[in-house]
Design brief:
Layout: H1 12-21, E1 26-29, H2 38-48, E2 51-62, E3 65-72, H3 79-105, H4 113-120, H5 129-138, H6 145-153, H7 168-177, E4 181-184, H8 187-190, H9 196-201, E5 206-210, H10 216-229, E6 232-235, H11 257-267
Parallel strand pairs: 1-2, 4-5, 5-6
Antiparallel strand pairs: 2-3, 3-4
Helix pairs in contact: 1-2, 5-6
The structure holds adenosine monophosphate and zinc ion.
Length: about 270
């Protein structure tokens, strides 16, 4: 799940409230390229009696294409990782600025400066394309976040700006050095099957099988692939909060308990992590 530390709509505390309201007892927060939500979410989860596994969703790059890598239970203070994540966030800010310039040139100017200045006031906040999507909606150029991505912001659309970033295998190795476990996020959504054998050879420990954008056939296929490559299985709702366009999965897409137990054992997870 995502919080306002990246592109979620709920603060860490609000997210815990939503989780409790759904009757969920175990959660993991995986904000994009930041651990800034960890303290608040683990404090709120402890009060609410919810078990919380700390995580992250790091954007790696392969041939100019984004590859999302989940990371769990690493040392957030590992110096090399701290530097890496800070560079990732700087590149997000640079990219968003360029998206703003591009949208203006395309004749659909948006006001991004206010939102970016506001975001910059929160330490460790990771900016992203959903902010440009919200600005397009606010300016009346599109009717929804989804339309903003479909027309302008998605890969291959006119306001898509490539990012700079590490190779997926480098992220696997870095998170391992920081004591954590990586999982290739939603490979069916982003069509990343071709990367899996090389990533497994590079030490990838897990793949995400359960995700709102995996249909039943894909879920079965990735489950099978996890067996074939002897990988751990991860999964979740990828919840981004009400109004994000990505709020459907909460409580409906989740990791089966047996898989969570295996992941928890491998990461050495305890509460609090
Ligand atoms: P970025 O992190 O800047 O690459 O933005 C990617 C994020 O935008 C994803 O993690 C989603 O939260 C969101 N996103 C991507 N595609 C869509 C879409 N079609 N509709 C709504 N949100 C999207
Ligand atoms: Zn997101």
């Amino acid at each position: 799940m995502h919080t306002t530390a990246s592109d979620g709509r709920s603060t860490p505390s609000q997210l815990v409230d939503e989780v409790v309201a759904m009757g969920i007892t175990t959660m993991a927060v995986v904000d994009h390229d930041t651990t800034a939500g960890w303290d608040e979410v683990s404090a709120a989860a402890a009060v609410a009696g919810v078990a919380c596994m700390p995580g992250i969703e790091i954007t790696a790059v392969d041939h100019g294409r984004d590859v999302h890598m989940l990371g769990y239970c690493f040392d957030r203070n590992y110096p090399e990782l701290v530097t890496f994540l800070s560079t990732q966030r700087e590149d997000r800010t640079r990219r968003l600025r360029e998206i703003g310039d591009r949208l203006a040139r395309l004749g659909v100017p948006v006001d991004l400066q206010g939102a970016m200045a506001e975001a910059a006031r929160s330490a460790g906040r990771a900016m992203g394309r959903p902010m440009a999507a919200a600005a397009l909606v606010a300016a009346g150029h599109v009717a929804s976040i989804r339309e903003a991505f479909d027309r302008y912001l998605a890969e291959g659309r006119p306001a898509f700006i490539e990012r700079q970033g590490a190779q997926p295998a480098a992220v696997v190795a870095l998170v391992a050095r920081a004591g954590g476990v990586t999982s290739l996020a939603h490979p069916g959504k982003t069509q990343k099957d071709h990367l899996i054998p090389d990533l497994v050879a590079a030490g990838l420990p897990a793949i995400e099988v359960y995700h709102p954008e995996h249909d039943a056939a894909e879920t079965a296929r990735y489950r099978q692939m996890a067996d074939t490559f002897n990988l751990l299985v991860t999964g979740g709702s990828d919840y981004h909060g009400v109004g994000s366009g990505r709020s459907q999965g909460l409580g409906q897409f989740y990791l089966p308990a047996a898989d969570f137990t295996r992941l928890a054992e491998r990461t050495g997870w305890t509460i609090p992590c």
